[in-house]
Amino acid sequence: MKVYKFGGASVKDAAGVRNLEQIVRLAINDQSAITNDQSLMVVVSAMGKTTNALERVVEFLAHDEEEKALTQWVDIIDFHVAIMKELGLQPGSDIRLQGEIPYDPTKSYDENYDQVVSMGELLSTQIIAVYLLKQGLSVEWWNMPKLLRTDDTWREARVNDEASRATIRAGWERVNRPNIVVTQGFIGGTADGQRTTLGREGSDYTAALLGNYLDAESVTIWKDVPGILNADPRIEPNTVLIPSLRYQDAVELSYSGAQIIHPKTIKPLENKRIPLFVKPFGDPNAAGSRIAEDGIGPINIPVYIWRKNQILITMRAKDFGFVLEESLSEIFDIIHRHRLKVSLIQSSAVTISVCVDNTRFVEEALQALQQHFKVSYNDHLSLLTIRGTTPQILEQAKAGRTIMLSQTTRRTARLLVKED
Ligand code: ASP
Ligand code: MG
Description:
alpha/beta; Carbamate kinase; VC0802-like; eight-stranded mixed β-sheet; six-stranded antiparallel β-sheet; binds aspartic acid; binds magnesium ion
């Protein structure tokens, strides 16, 4: 079997859904993709910017701004109703629309977040499944909150592989073949039936997990770019497609901040040697990029990766006789407990600096660190990683920028840049 994943941008409107249908039909006609005893797993994100809009609903409700929340909610429903109508579907009868916001003021912000935000994927997949069915395709809709078992770390739920593998494999056994299964990326559920989310942009990760559980022949992520490029086309005018990559290169790229695939995507695929394709949804026959064990590496063109919204936290020992190195485990314990994502580390005789994503967890972590160390920080930073760098490229990258810190090896440069 194969797994196809479609992100929000690829299903942002009715045309996107029709395009998805065409891509799925290509797979069905292609005998190597789907034969009588095979099926296609289609993993979909929320449509367009729905996840951001749902986040605003939660935010409003948490601040008792019910009217604003409701307006936003109605906007979201209207957006989906318009797409349904354009696709010839009957809102209300083809798809039951949730009238009430699944928000419970007695529960925590994060738990409510997962109940509300998961609606985006539930809506998009229902619309797509019903639409494909009406186009005469054989389709099954799967409800991931019942299949992908997670713990209750709201907004960053950890997947229970053993339980999920069992239910998903069992479900797959029962699927009529050939068939198309349409399901949600990004969301799962706890043992007692609460919905959870796996962290923003987590749909790629879902696709990889399903590929792993079902021993997929390949996983394909359909995107609004030609494949993996050497730089973000919104920043660099001259980008080059990287046709082939090894798993480890892809991991490094995504951890450095390349927005192309979620960093957690690679491991489940690498473990089973399942190739990952990144292809343009606007041109389904294009080769795109292929990530696999036998990929070509290291990359011999410079690759520029920006990781935005960084904060550099610097720790000094409170008393002088204290050797900071001895507190390394303490520092990283605090960082780990607060779920900070470290992008760079630098140390001197008396200080240790860690650069992390400036998330909502940082404030509490700073307080915890301040109990043990003298702490200072710099925010509004971006980390630029250049792989395949040369002294010349490095000079160009530094020109006109305020560099807070730089780390270079022979092939890789990392610059912490002040954002303007
Ligand atoms: N819809 C979710 C998000 O926007 C998950 C995803 O797109 O992968 O973060
Ligand atoms: Mg997305």
